[in-house]
Design a protein that fits this description.
By secondary structure, this protein is α/β, with parallel strands linked by helices. The protein is 39% helix and 16% strand. The chain contains twelve helices and twelve strands. The chain has helices spanning 27-39, 55-64, 115-129, 144-147, 151-160, 162-171, 186-192, 214-227, 255-270, 275-285, 299-310, 315-323; strands at 13-14, 44-46, 73-78, 80-86, 107-111, 136-140, 177-182, 201-205, 230-234, 247-248, 251-252, 289-293. An eight-stranded parallel β-sheet has the order 1-2-3-6-7-8-9-12. A two-stranded antiparallel sheet has the order 4-5. Strands 10-11 form a two-stranded antiparallel sheet. Strand 10 (247-248) and strand 11 (251-252) form a beta hairpin. Helix 3 crosses helix 6 and helix 10 packs across helix 11.
Amino acid sequence: MSITSFLPGRLGFGTAPLGNMFRAIPDEEAAATVEAAWDNGIRYFDTAPFYGAGLSEIRLGEVLAGKPRDEFVLSTKVGRVILDETEDPATRDLGEKGGLFEHGRPNKIVNDYSADATMRSVEDSLKRLRTDRLDIVWVHDVAQDFYGDEWLAAYETARTGAFRVLQGLRDEGVIKAWGLGVNRVEPLELTLDLDEPKPDAFLLAGRYTLLDHERASQRLLPAAEAQGVDIVVGGPYSSGVLAGGQHFEYQKAPASIIDKVERIKALAARHGVGIKAAALQFSLAHPAVVAAIPGATRPSRIAEDVAALGETVPAAFWTALRTEGLIARHAPVPTA
């Protein structure tokens, strides 16, 4: 079933930053940001236990507990179990994402994609989110950026554990949909080749953006579209570098990326286009993509995202990006 049957719109809110990603965020600021999303009409919220060792779920749940449950869509993830035991967040082995949530809760995070761990993760998330149900559950980060050469072993555990549990929960009507939430295309391509289990959608972070879309647009997105597997784009601003930030791929942006961003900004300025509008609308232009979920930690950013979605971007801008080699020639662009 396409998740468009219950998604409330094409713009959602990715709450990874609420887990104190990059910096310690006051509780009041986090709550105000979620309230701003609600006030601006956003009704799809995505989170994960991994984000600050449960902090994002707790903060999101505190606000959404006061909203009518039937009026919003909620997704979270499995693959990590959060323990009461503590550890130093700064010393966690997070693969290529080292130090990402060093300001989060100190609770120990255990990677586990087994069937039992999946059920425990879902139950724990329901408690942290203060809700009686989840709409979408993603299998989180079962890819090279976290597991290196061991990623296929982690994937196989997920295939025989988490995948089957989530498909069962969907078939029983406990959840509406399931899929994978990753930062790499390979596990998604592998999953599309499976006879079973069959996911409903994928959350693909950082791999279909203005700065990085070549590989995803060649095989993954056309294959997903052909099989009726929806794509939700996470990180449409490439960890913030396309929205005035300094991070790309969750780390300090290298000079080559900064240079590319500056070239895009120059063309955007020439055509009177906001960089956020360009980034967000590009990610949503592919027919396989049903939603994008930028993150934010400040209430004002939410209104910017909503405005960016509605901004008029002239066709000449997209033509200029192609001419300058800044987007792939085969990548779809918005049409008026």
